[in-house]
Amino acid sequence: MKSIIQRIAEQNKIREKGEAAALKAEINNPATDNGRRNFLKKAAMGGIALGGLMSISIEDTIAQTTSNVSRSSSPSELKITDMRYALTTVLGGTAIIRIDTNQGIYGLGEVRDGADVRYALMLKSRILGMNPCNVEMIFKSIKQFGGPSRQAGGVCGVEMALWDLVGKAYGVPAWQLLGGRYRDKVRLYADTPETKSTEEQMKLLKHRTEVQGYTWLKMDLSIDELKDIPGTLVNTKIWQDSTKNLTQWGDQSNYISYANTKHPFSQIQITDKGIEELAKIVENVRNLTGYEIPLSTDHFGHFDLNNGIRLGKALDKYRLAWMEDIISWE
What we know:
Elements: H1 4-28, H2 34-45, H3 58-65, E1 80-87, E2 95-101, E3 106-111, H4 118-121, H5 124-127, H6 135-142, H7 153-170, H8 174-177, E4 190-192, H9 198-211, E5 217-220, E6 233-234, H10 263-266, E7 269-270, H11 272-289, E8 295-298, H12 305-315
Parallel strand pairs: 4-5, 5-8
Antiparallel strand pairs: 1-2, 2-3, 6-7
Helix pairs in contact: 1-2, 6-7, 9-11, 11-12
C-alpha cells in the first residue's frame, strides 16, 4: 500500500503538469495582455508551480512564493493607466487623487485646499500611457493648465502623486529622490478657525497649545466679526448673504456676489472704531498666548490696500509673524 505522502506527491505531480499546461496555454493565448503574460513568464522561469504548495489555494501559493519579490522592479516599463479620486470632509470636500499603473502600484496626491477635483480630472487624458517616473517632463506638459491659488490644485495633486509613485517604484522615500534627508522634524503651526466670540476662539487656541502641544498659531481675523457692531464698517449690507454674513466662500454661481468680487471693488472700508475692535481681538489672543508663541493671521475679508495698511499699522505692536492675504491674491 502506498503511503499517504506518496499518494499526495503523485497527486501534486499530476496537478502541477496540468497547471503548467494551463500556464503555457494562457501565455500563448493572444487575448492575454502583456502585463499578465510577463508575470506568467517570470513565474514559470522562477519554477513557481501555481499549485505547488500542498493544501493551499493558487492565490495563497502565489502570495507565498512571491512575497519577497518587488512588484515595482521595472520602473522603465511603468505606465499610467487610470486616475480616480475620493472626497474628504476637509474644507468641505478636499479631494485625494489616485494615479494607477500597469504594475499595480499607485500614487496619491491632494487637490490642494478644497479646490475642485475637476482641476485634476481634466489632466487624466493627458497623462494616460505615460511613465510616471518622468515627473519633470509630465509636470512641464501640464503646468499650463494650472494657475494661482486653488486653480493649481490639479497640477499640484498630479505632481504629488507622481513623486509618490516614483518612490514606490524605486523603493525609496520621496525625500530621497528630492535631494535626501535634511532634517528629522519640522515645526508646525495650527490654524484656529474664526468663531462667534473672542471667548470661544480663546478656548480653541488653548486647546491647540495645551492639549495638542502646538508652539505656533494662526488665527482668523475677519471683518465678518464686526457685522453686529454699529459704526465699524462701511458699505457691507449689500454684500451680506441670507444669514447676514460676509462669506468669502459664498455663492460661487452668482458672479456679482461678495465671494466673486475682487477686494478693491467691494468698497468695504473699516472705520477707526472697526480697527480698534479688530485690534482688541488680537490683544485678547496675545494675552492668552504670550509672546513666546508666534502668532499669524489670515481670512480678513474683502477690502482694499489702503484699509489693509491701516489695519497692519494698528496690529504692528502685537508683533504678528505674518498677515496672510491681506489683499486679494490676484
